[in-house]
Every structure is written in C-alpha cells, then in structure tokens.
Amino acid sequence: MSERNHRAGFVSLVGRPNAGKSTLTNALVGQKVAITSSKPQTTRHTIRGIVHREDSQLILVDTPGLHRPRTLLGQRLNDLVADTLAEVDAIGFCIPANEPIGPGDKFITAQLSRLQRKPLIAVVTKTDLVDRAALTRQLMAVVALGEEVLGEAGWADVVPVSAADGFQVETVGDVFASHMPESPPLYPGGALTDEPEAVMVAELVREAALEGVRDEMPHSLAVVVDEIVPREGRSADNQLLDVRVNLFVERSSQKAIIIGKGGARLREVGTNARKSIEALLGTRIYLDLHVKIAKDWQRDPKQLVRLGF
Ligand SMILES: Nc1nc2c(ncn2[C@@H]2O[C@H](COP(=O)(O)OP(=O)(O)OP(=O)(O)O)[C@@H](O)[C@H]2O)c(=O)[nH]1
Ligand SMILES: [Mg+2]
Description:
alpha/beta, six-stranded mixed sheet
C-alpha cells in the first residue's frame, strides 16, 4: 500500500427516518457502532463509524432521519444533518427498495442539490425485501429522481445493497472509497468509532428501552449517563463499574410503561442493556437505571440543552 494511492474521507449517510442508515453503517464497519430499531427517528445525533479497508479508510457519519419537523427536537435534528453535510466528502442518500419514492425523498434530493460539487450517491437499501423486478423498477425510479431534481449530471452513482444479508455491502464501500480524496488514514487502525464511551452507553440503554414499546414512546425518551465509576476495593482482575443512567420521559403514563408491572420491564431493559454495555466496555458493570419525568422536553429549549441537544 503506497500512501499516494490511499484514499480517506468522510461520507454522510442521509435519508428518511427508518431507511436503514444505521444498519448500513454497522454493516460497513463490521460491528455495532450505531443503535437501530424498527421505530423511525432512532438516531438522534451523528455517529461516526470508521471502516478500515486495504487501500482506503471511510469515516461514515450516520445521521438522524430527515423529516418535516413537528417539534423543536425535530428541527434541531434536521439542522444537525444540514451542518454535517457541509463537512463531508460525499453523501450517501439511503432510499429503501421496498417503499415508493415520496415527496420526502424529493425534498431531501432538492436540499442535497444545493451542496455544490459534492458527490451524491444514491444507495437503495433493504434489497432483500423485494424481488428482482421490483428492485429494477426502484433503481429506475431513483435514477429518474436524480435526473429530475439534479439535472443532467444526476447521481454520482446508484448502488443497491442489503445490510441484512450482506448483498453488495463491499461494493458500497468500494463506491464510497472511489469518491474519497487521496489521503493517508485519518484515524488509527483498530478504532471503530470516535464516540465518547458515555454516549455509546446511553445509546445502548435507549436501544434496549425502545424494544417493544408503543409507537409514541420513542420520541419521548431521552437517555443520559449520570456517571461511570469503578467500584472501590476491587482487585485489578475483578473490576466492576457502577454505571448510573437516567431515562427521561415526558409524562407519568410513559414512566409507568417503561417501568412495567412491579418494575418487570425496567429490569428486562437493564439486563439487555447490561450485556451490550459489558461487551462494549469489556468489564463487568452494575447498571443502575432511573426513570424521570422531564415534562414536554422535546419542545423546551432549556431541557433540550440539558439532555444534550
Ligand atoms: N430486511 C431488511 N431490514 C433492514 C435492512 N436495513 C435496515 N433494516 C431494518 O429497518 C429498520 C430501520 O433501520 P435503521 O438502520 O435503524 O434505520 P435508520 O435509517 O438509521 O433510522 P433512523 O435512525 O430512525 O433515521 C430496522 O428495523 C432494521 O432492522 C436491510 O437491509 N434489510
Ligand atoms: Mg439511525
């Protein structure tokens, strides 16, 4: 590998909520760096996943899904994506193979067209959910969308992929890499993300808590790590970390749902989150979860700041 031919740079994955951006990020990185769920608006801040390849390094910037904002939180998330786009070398626009292209996709494409000279790559996700004929139709519709909104030039590339079965994941990496500038690696080998540990821990708790809740809950839940401290008096080969985490919901009815009958649901969330946090940190932990009410935090600028938005 000669440094001259090595490429490295940033690729932002954008798209509607639930399009499969975080799942694709994880598939490309080869490990979970971004939480995913079947609920839209799972991702709430940009997450960087680092892909080390033989002659290229990709820093994927997973972003919250773009949508018409209904709350201050929604507006902040859209702004965050807009800020991110200015900084990256290329953009991967994720469009699910199994959903018709809608006004949301047109709106996003139009926004992207304003970013001058940035390669825009259309990524048709979730190909495992459709048959070959439907995929062909979707690819043609995506090409047409590009020509309609972006003009003659259209997309820099169009690639189908399934993060679920691995179809073309390597190819997506190749395509992204081909649009990166020549550069030595930007991150040291081995690092998979540059997220602070506390952020990853909070995200894993949020992922566990989202499992199986009703549709209105995801937006109302915010998770903040209060502290991560080593338990005193433990020998070096028997470390235990005390991890204290606050879960904020907007109403007492939601608090009841999260906690469950006799605390059963919260215990289950704790058990699931503990396993993934222990895997992340490589140490045993004691996980202490507290559910609190932060009334209407999604609409309240002060509370948004307190919760990290
Ligand atoms: N069958 C199939 N499902 C997928 C694929 N990729 C993602 N999904 C599912 O689609 C849902 C949404 O995936 P995410 O990766 O969380 O989507 P996202 O675009 O990051 O969503 P937000 O963060 O809410 O914007 C989850 O239930 C995933 O399991 C795929 O390639 N095939
Ligand atoms: Mg996501």
